[in-house]
Amino acid sequence: MAAVHPPPAPDRPRISRSTLVVVLSIAAGAVCLAAAAISTKALSIAMCAVILVALICSYRLNNRE
């Protein structure tokens, strides 16, 4: 009697570059607005963090292709 194997899982759809840019832009705006409400130092830190995340995501997208 042959073993029954489940069908292979479908490939996970990849997020497009434009969708990622929109999502990151909205999140970055929200983070910076919240930080600006706290103080200018918090805004500076938030902007640096947003730039760092954007660079990391850009690097990962370029390496995937």
Estimated structural class = mainly alpha
- Listing every helix as H and every strand as E from the N terminus to the C terminus, the arrangement reads HH
Please estimate the helix content.
over 70%
Rough outline: elongated
Number of self-contained structural domains: 1
Q: Give the end-to-end Cα distance, rounded to a whole number of Å.
A: 43 Å
State mean pLDDT (0 to 100 scale). 81
Multimeric organization: single chain
In terms of DSSP E residues, the strand content is: under 5%
Q: Which stretches of 5+ consecutive residues score pLDDT under 50?
A: none
The number of E-state strands comes to: 0
Major sheet details: none
Q: What's the tally of helices?
A: 2
Rounded to the nearest angstrom, the radius of gyration is: 19 Å
Helix and strand arrangement:
Blueprint (H helix, E strand, L loop, with lengths): L16 H22 L1 H25 L1
Helix pairs in contact: 1-2
Keywords: Membrane, Transmembrane, Transmembrane helix
Give me a quick take on this structure:
By secondary structure, the protein is mainly α. Helices cover 72% and strands 0% of the residues. 0% of the residues are buried.
Describe this structure in words.
It is a single chain. The chain is mainly α and 65 residues long. It has one domain. The chain contains two helices and no strands. Helix 1 runs antiparallel to helix 2. It is elongated, with a radius of gyration of 19 Å. It starts with 16 loop residues before the first helix and ends with a helix. The relative contact order is 0.11.
